[in-house]
Amino acid sequence: MYLSRVILDLSNRASLAVAADAYEAHRFVFAAYVDAKAARPLYRVEAGLGGIAVIAQGLVEPDWERALRLSGARATVESKQIMKPRFDNGTRYRFKLVANAVKTIADAHGKTDGQGKPKSVRVPLIRDDQLRAWLDGQGKKAGFIVERATVEKREPIVARNGRAGNDIRLAATGFNGTIFVSDGDALWDAIGRGFGHGKGFGLGLLSVAPAVEGTV
């Protein structure tokens, strides 16, 4: 797996577009992964002390020179290959995740699909207790137990959809806190897959780092 931090030069117009426009960020990241199916890229755009950066992960080595050339953006790139951590059971990690936390319900108008089956729709979760329950449920499937988590409701991700003529709109929630590993193999697999919907538009990337003893 490869992890990258691409710090955008905001004096450049194309870099500003990547920072501000979900569709341009999508195009920029996927230009670095020629075979996106094999790479299974995940990313998010975040602001930090060093400026606005694209944090990206993929199963194959990205070509950021290609992405910069095609987009016209300018950036400082840090990229490295990482091996699977030990992830011993009970180990405590800090985590960060921005995800599309939703539930699936039957269509309120009784619409059906081409096979006559009831259609389902995704409804964003709103209440903090619902969002925390969603995160706990993800952990059960992904080999971790949430020790502590803060929930931050964010502005939705909106990206234009040229083919359909409609914008793509995805609810986004930020989660930060600490987890305990319960199944290291499952956690590593889940990090590679990502969490929730909207992975192509900057959602679903779980970042973890060892928690320092004595911190919360």
Structure notes:
The longest helix is centred in the middle third of the chain and has 15 residues, at 128-142. Helices cover 25% and strands 40% of the residues. It is globular. With 216 residues, it is α+β, with helices and mostly antiparallel strands. A 4-stranded antiparallel sheet has the order 2-3-1-4. Helix 1 crosses helix 2 and helix 2 (22-31) packs across helix 4. The chain has helices at residues 13-20, 22-31, 36-39, 64-71, 128-142, 184-193; strands spanning 2-8, 42-48, 51-58, 75-81, 92-99, 102-106, 120-124, 144-161, 166-181, 206-210.
Major sheet attributes: 4 strands, antiparallel
CATH architecture of the largest domain: 2-Layer Sandwich
Number of domains: 2
CATH class of the largest domain: Alpha Beta
Structural class by sheet pairing and helices: alpha+beta
Helical residue percent?
25-40%
Order of helices and strands: EHHHEEHEEEEHEEHE
Order of the strands making up the biggest sheet:
2-3-1-4
Radius of gyration: 18 Å
Q: Mean pLDDT score, rounded?
A: 92
Please name the fourth-level CATH homologous superfamily of the largest domain.
Crispr-associated protein, domain 2
Pick out the low-confidence regions.
Answer: none
In CATH, the topology of the largest domain is named Alpha-Beta Plaits
Number of helical stretches of at least 4 residues = 6
The dominant shape is: globular
Ends distance = 28 Å
Tally of strands: 10
